[in-house]
Amino acid sequence: MVMIPLMLGHTVICDRYVLDLMVEGMADLKDLPGRTRFGFKLLRFLPRPQQAFLVRVDPSVAFERKPDMPTLSHFRARAELYNELADSMGVTVLDGSMSPESIHDEIWRRISKDRMAGVAG
Question: Which residues pair with 97 in a beta bridge?
Fold first, then answer.
């Protein structure tokens, strides 16, 4: 649960949150990004992340890493949704071809900057 640690003032880092819920639901229901079903409207009641990141990788690379998905086209369809929704939701997109260390450093830099701004403000 995210709410209790947030209410206690803790920083919470989630792997897969609102963007992932939206993409998976829309892909499974064959929805277009402009159409939002009632269930997705309920996502508004989840706490808004202060920072959200999408590590963008080529769908073929993602398919190699996660072969339990049915087809490469499955990944391509989801990648399109991730890209469209990330833009509209203000998600920071990172280059997935960077080393894991570089991705970590960039995320840490951005989170630390926000935390310092919160302390100063």
Answer: none
Within 56-99, residue ranges assigned H as helices are 59-65, 72-89
What pLDDT shows up at residue 64? 87
Query: Residue 14: its pLDDT value, please?
Result: 77
Buried b (16+ CB within 10 A) or exposed e, 5-34: eeeeeeeeeeeebbbeebbebbeeeeeeee
Residue-wise pLDDT for 28-38, tens only, equals: 777 666 666 65
Evaluate whether residue 68 is within a structural domain. yes
**Residue 5, domain member (yes or no):** no
93 in helix, strand or coil? Answer: strand
Q: Is the residue at 9 inside a domain?
A: no
Q: What is the pLDDT of residues 9-32, one digit of tens each?
A: 887 777 777 778 778 777 777 766
CB atoms within 10 A of CB 94: 17
For residues 12 and 6, give the distance between their C-alpha atoms in angstroms, rounded to a whole number.
Answer: 7
- What is the domain-level CATH number for residue 38? 3.40.50.300
How many domains does the chain contain in total?
1
